[in-house]
Amino acid sequence: MTLKLTINGQERELAVPPQTPLLNVLRNDLSLNGPKYGCGLGECGACSVLIDGMAARSCVLPVSAAVGHNVTTLDGLAQNGQLDPVQQAFIDAQAAQCGYCLNGMIITVRGLLNHNAQPTAEQIRAALEHNLCRCGTHVEILQAAERAVVINAVALEEAPYE
Question: What's this model's pTM, rounded to 2 decimal places?
Answer without folding.
Answer: 0.93
